[in-house]
Design a protein that fits this description.
Strand content: under 5%
Largest sheet: none
Structural class: mainly alpha
Number of strands: 0
Radius of gyration: 18 Å
Helix content: over 70%
Distance between the termini: 51 Å
Length: 177
């Protein structure tokens, strides 16, 4: 079944990209690991960039869905839900952080800044002070960094501390509402 082969290719590629980096992983390595020919891999993905985009796309869709369905409200709940979202995609985040050049051909650079601005607006509303923007940037960026740096730890352990630190960064008035 082609979709099964495609999913297997993505899984092996994701694993190798996280371990070795995107540029250090050849399509030959991926096809050999799977026991398929390079032409069979090319049947599903025209290029390494195409394969990377297919791995990143589910995260893009999940973040877009998350942002489009949320409304301003309880900041701590938003932080907890956002942490769980990025934790699910931590391998992709590790891959991106490990090799920033991936941002160039995935159109993620500007998109990630847009996501951050939208999240900040959900946390603080539309009228923001510079201090609020900075606090929210520290909170959200710190949580994202934790999903990459501590991806090997149990999620609940990382989440509890990361959300607590993010809430503290927002300030007491923001998380008490």
């Amino acid at each position: 079944m082609p979709s099964d082969t495609k999913a297997r290719i993505q899984a092996v590629a994701r694993e190798l990209f996280v371990q070795q980096g995107v540029q250090n992983t050849s399509l030959r390595q991926i096809s050999e690991r799977l026991g398929i020919t390079k032409p069979a891999l090319y049947y599903h993905f025209a290029s390494r960039e195409d394969l990377v985009r297919s791995i990143v796309q589910p995260m893009v869709e999940d973040v877009e869905r998350f942002l489009s369905t949320r409304e301003p409200g309880d900041a701590r709940e938003l932080l907890e839900d956002y942490f769980e979202l990025i934790w699910r995609h931590r391998e992709v985040l590790v891959m991106l952080v490990r090799e920033m050049s991936v941002l160039g051909y995935t159109d993620l650079g500007e998109r990630m800044f847009d996501w951050r601005r939208r999240l900040i607006a959900l946390l603080f509303g539309a009228e923001l002070t510079h201090a609020q923007r900075i606090r929210a940037t520290v909170a959200l960026g710190g949580m994202s960094d934790c999903t990459v740096e501590y991806a090997h730890l149990p999620m609940q352990e990382v989440k509890a501390t990361a959300v607590e630190a993010a809430a503290a960064a927002l300030g007491p008035s923001q998380t008490a509402r």
